[in-house]
Amino acid sequence: MASASPSHFEPSCSVRRYSGEHSAHEHGFAQILYALEGSMELDIAGRAAFVDCASGIVIPAGAGHGYAAERSARILVIDAPDQPALARMRRFAVPAAWRGDAAAPRAVAERVAQVLQAPALLARRRMDLARLTQAVQAALHEDWPTARLAALCHLSPQRFHARLMELTGRTPQAWLRALRLDRAARLLARGQPLETTALACGYASASALAYALRRERGVGARELRRSNTIE
């Protein structure tokens, strides 16, 4: 069902939570969407698209669209008056400074102008970062070369590298190290021995894990064992 809207109004912005599938509908105004957390798949006038924290979308006024969102996806939505600059579907690169900012922009009209100036994105394959993270965390003790990570996402290693950099700001191996060290820090804080922790988190030895913790986090295993702040 179409939503009526005056042809001229001040653009508004809100952060909305979505979950599950929603049937097609349309508005008398344009919408700009990108994810603060999670992702959303869309069907816009018969064309497949998605939004995540690195990829946004412009939905023109009158374009029927349905969507399916992963649980607890948080989407920043700007409702903007119909205008020529927003008259076609457009994928755009979300600037890094906007990512994860739960506060709706104060100068919404300025944000709309910034969207129009943001680099356009070609169609690309969606990457389910939550699913990838879950799969890797379930087997951190195993080897995870970039090619294996990419295969889980049905991407070439080169495309996977580029998409992960967009989403996390980290290379695949830097992202993997962060997962390993996060797990190691939690286990050590619970009193698990360093050697056991190292093997569980994919390190060849206790000394290799100790070196990585000191280099990457500036903390030693003894300090973590004494800490009760890491859950």
What does this 3D model show about the protein?
With 231 residues, the protein is an alpha+beta fold. The protein has eight helices and eight strands, in the order ββββββββαααααααα. Strands 1, 2, 3, 4, 5, 6, 7 and 8 form an eight-stranded mixed β-sheet that branches. A hairpin with a 2-residue loop joins β4 and β5. α3 crosses α4 and α6 crosses α7. The relative contact order is 0.12.
CATH architectural name of the largest domain: Sandwich
Reported for the largest beta sheet, the result is: 8 strands, mixed
Mass-distribution shape:
elongated
- What is the H-and-E element order? EEEEEEEEHHHHHHHH
Give the overall pLDDT as a whole number: 86
The N- to C-terminal Cα distance equals 47 Å
Strand content: 25-35%
What is the number of E strands? 8
CATH fold-level topology of the largest domain: Jelly Rolls
Helical percent range?
A: 25-40%
Uncertain parts: 1-6
> What is the number of helical segments per DSSP (H or I, 4+ residues)?
8
Using the CA coordinates, give the radius of gyration: 21 Å
The CATH class of the largest domain turns out to be Mainly Beta
Going by helix content, strand content and strand pairing, the class is alpha+beta
